What we know:
Layout: H1 2-27, E1 33-37, H2 46-60, E2 64-68, H3 76-83, E3 91-95, H4 97-101, H5 103-106, E4 118-128, E5 130-134, H6 142-151, E6 157-160, H7 166-178, E7 183-186, H8 190-199, E8 204-207, H9 209-217, E9 221-226, E10 252-260, H10 265-279, H11 282-291, E11 294-295, H12 300-321
Parallel strand pairs: 1-2, 1-3, 6-7, 6-8
Antiparallel strand pairs: 3-10, 4-10, 4-11, 5-8, 5-9
Helix pairs in contact: 1-10, 2-10, 7-12
Amino acid sequence: xxxxxxxxxxxxxxxxxxxxxxxxxxxxxxxxxxxxxxxxxxxxxxxxxxxxxxxxxxxxxxxxxxxxxxxxxxxxxxxxxxxxxxxxxxxxxxxxxxxxxxxxxxxxxxxxxxxxxxxxxxxxxxxxxxxxxxxxxxxxxxxxxxxxxxxxxxxxxxxxxxxxxxxxxxxxxxxxxxxxxxxxxxxxxxxxxxxxxxxxxxxxxxxxxxxxxxxxxxxxxxxxxxxxxxxxxxxxxxxxxxxxxxxxxxxxxxxxxxxxxxxxxxxxxxxxxxxxxxxxxxxxxxxxxxxxxxxxxxxxxxxxxxxxxxxxxxxxxxxxxxxxxx
Length: 326
């Protein structure tokens, strides 16, 4: 009799849990949803974030607002704010790779655990990193850059958007794989790095298409390789790093939406479906074309697996290249 009673209670509890999850989805959202961007205003990805906010507001009938909250190492202040928010779907994170993938391997006391503190919702897009040189330099290929750097050790500077960012780690991979002595110059963000690249204060930079393509068209910089295994559609004549003899020298910028860990799966799934629908739209395709990106329409489980894979890859790079943040 006792066993039967326990079984009945267990079934009732399971049913109640299912009803709660269903109720959460049916009533969400019923107030403002805040999407935290852990970087200063004006980053190229913001065009996508704001498109999403507008479309989600129209779909859900509630305001979806973008809040820039920069600070910390590589956007970790904004990420920590989301990680420690109530897991109710009303505080979300629009993140680039650094806070989720490399921060734990580089920094102490983040205020969150990247692998445990978030519920991935949806990837938005990916775009390749482009190995770019100031047009005053003579080289037109990766091999020519390597030869030039070997002939002038310590005389070439390569910019990054900050310690632990993809441009920094790709720079370290290039130095190690090619056996060259080039000087890493970290900046606070992409904009400052591009400004000094254009001015010739630094000579080389791994840049995203959104940051660099307008300057390529103006003839101020030259893209000599795409850090990928596939060529970039907007620069079809530029070879990949793999074609140039460095198959492991690859990296892509990406962005996605996450919630605090513990957010009901029904809300996560509801947001995933809505976001993927928006990212399929002609307006999103047009915006992505300006960024040099392509949409990634995946499930929350796909996004989770991708973050795990990226974390493993870049943690191994950090270990192999000996990158340390003092």
